[in-house]
Specification:
Helix content: over 70%
Length: 64
């Protein structure tokens, strides 16, 4: 059975895919941090919006 990592590594060989994947990486990292925080620390939405990674991702989204 193929794993997600195997599939991703195969897709990353495509330069166009790699470029788009890397362009959204900061936003995806912020999303992962939010999910991890909510699970591990039972963060409230108010606490989450104060995380620097979230504010950075919001600014990046506004600039598009």
């Amino acid at each position: 059975m193929i794993t997600f990592d195997d599939m991703l590594n195969e897709q990353m060989k495509d330069e166009e895919f790699r470029k788009e994947y890397e362009a959204i990486k900061p936003e995806m990292d912020a999303i992962r941090k939010i999910v991890d925080s909510r699970i591990s620390e039972k963060c409230t939405p108010d606490k989450i919006t104060k995380l620097p990674e979230v504010n950075c991702a919001q600014e990046n989204t506004k600039n598009k």
